[in-house]
Amino acid sequence: MKITAIGALALAIASAVTGAVVLTGGLPHTARRSPAHGSAVSQGPAPSPGAPGIGDPLMPLSGNGGYTVRRYTLDFDWQAPRTPFAAAATVRATATQSLSRFDLDFAGNTLRTVTVDGAPATAVRDGDELVVTPPRPIPRGRAFTVHVTYTADPTQRRHRDDAIQDYGWMPTPDGTMVCAQPDGAKMIFPANDHPSLRAPVTFRITTPDGVSAVANGRLVGTERRPGRRVRWTYDSEEPIAGQLVQMAIGEFTFVEGTGPHGLPLRDVVPDGLVGGTEAYRSLTAQHLAWLERRLGPYPFRRYGVLVGDTDLPVALETQSLSVVPRDDLLGDRVDAERNLVHELAHHWTGDSVAIRRWSDLWLSEGHARFYERLYSAEHGGPDLEETMRAAYEQHDQWRHDDGAPAEPTAPTLFKVMRYDGSALVLFALREKVGEETFGRIERSWVTRYRGRAAGTPEFVALASRIAGEDLAPFLTPWLYGPHTPPMPGHPDWQADPVED
């Protein structure tokens, strides 16, 4: 919407009277980045704007600078499938610099109001950035609370030409679910949306009576509301990255169970799919035990599978509640277990040990694919060496098309190189150092960086320390080189010629 000078003045007057957002239309980037007006704090550096991104080269505007989120509280007043509904997000944060203004990642949806510590704030939309200017600068170290009300659009989604395909809000026949990877959390709520940035989340989801809601973590309780509605409250229990947030609404059956060491298991299944998906869902305890023997204790307080009643062929490692499409759970057992183990393995590598930058995605997807392939080889699937040799033959082509494992571009993030191509790097490392040393590297990786973000340099350094030799000369060409290095122990393996 184009806003004239007279129209802008009218908006400003109306906002002053109502306490609403001063402006919700976009402004040119240079205009909205001009210095903020208002008094400076009496001590320390003058207030300045927080950065609109954390500096990730692949997604420069992912995340935001100048503050750390301490908790999100999300309120969703869901009505019916594909129907907009009232929503609110409360973001509790601490300033890491003296802030004249700051950004939240927020895409689409209809913005209503923004307050900072209860006072109306100026809010400007600049693409996928929500730029908030508080009525007074926020001193460094000060805790503050942002409250954003908006109308959520549960049909909003975006598309990628890679394994992700569509992401954002995913409509289902009787509700909705969330697939936020890689940068779709901003379509769900105002966020500090980067995989390295995590905070606990409280979900308060109101639904019609007879319709259930689920989210990451623990069900705190349900509460009857006026108009035959029910409010469901969930606590994520652990800090969580935006791309791993899950919220689903529908006519669900909750299937409770117990995993190794008494771990609570909770599957969430559309009512008509409970019986048909039971055989493969019941294997979760076995999958947990198998992975724990290789990677150590499961790193969260509960786990479960959310059966996705959609046509999308995408599974997703949303934290403590993996999404697995219904068709995967109604088909071949080998294929179903590959997806189930893949998403579960992510809870060690990707969820608990987060990636530091998007270029480190090979550490997340490569590990999940490696353990998926290894499990499958032991349980009726193709031989591991056969699948790795096939990947080796195509590796130069993948490097040409999608970049080396640790050198993706934004459009090629979720191409096959980050999956089988990156699993091949881990297979090469195992062939280089031996299975016993490789196992110690893996367990040390998920133990040392549990609950933290880590990247490729940390992995290379840790592997070198455990192996007792500098592995950088070995791993660098595998991760960054233009051609696939020789495979240790397999001198006969050859990469196919590259085709343009």
Automatic annotation (TrEMBL):
GO terms for molecular function: alanyl aminopeptidase activity; metallopeptidase activity; zinc ion binding. One of its GO terms (cellular component) is cytoplasm. Its main location: cytoplasm. It comes from the Bacteria. Binds 1 zinc ion per subunit. InterPro entries: Aminopeptidase_N-like_N_sf (IPR042097), M1_LTA4H (IPR034015), Peptidase_M1 (IPR001930), Peptidase_M1_dom (IPR014782), Peptidase_M4/M1_CTD_sf (IPR027268). Signal peptide: none annotated. Zn(2+) binds at H342, H346, E365. It is found in: Cytoplasm. It catalyses: Release of an N-terminal amino acid, Xaa-|-Yaa- from a peptide, amide or arylamide. Xaa is preferably Ala, but may be most amino acids including Pro (slow action). When a terminal hydrophobic residue is followed by a prolyl residue, the two may be released as an intact Xaa-Pro dipeptide. PANTHER family: LEUKOTRIENE A-4 HYDROLASE. This is Aminopeptidase N. It comes from Streptomyces lucensis JCM 4490.
